[in-house]
Design a protein that fits this description.
Layout: H1 5-10, H2 19-32, H3 40-52
Length: 53
């Protein structure tokens, strides 16, 4: 998929992002751009957190 340059320019990943910030950014990225997949390690962390709730 072609990157959404406008979204990327307005939504930078924070420096030294926490895991929660990374999850939030990647989920928003997936909804608004989706030029790449969520990293596997982050997918695993999302699943872990979903099963705890």
């Amino acid at each position: 998929m072609k990157p959404n340059a406008l979204w990327h320019s307005k939504n930078k990943m924070p420096k030294n992002a926490t895991t929660q910030q990374r999850i939030k950014w990647h989920l928003a990225h997936q909804r608004n751009c989706g030029c790449r997949e969520i990293p596997e390690k982050l997918k695993e962390e999302i699943k872990k957190r979903e099963t705890k709730n």
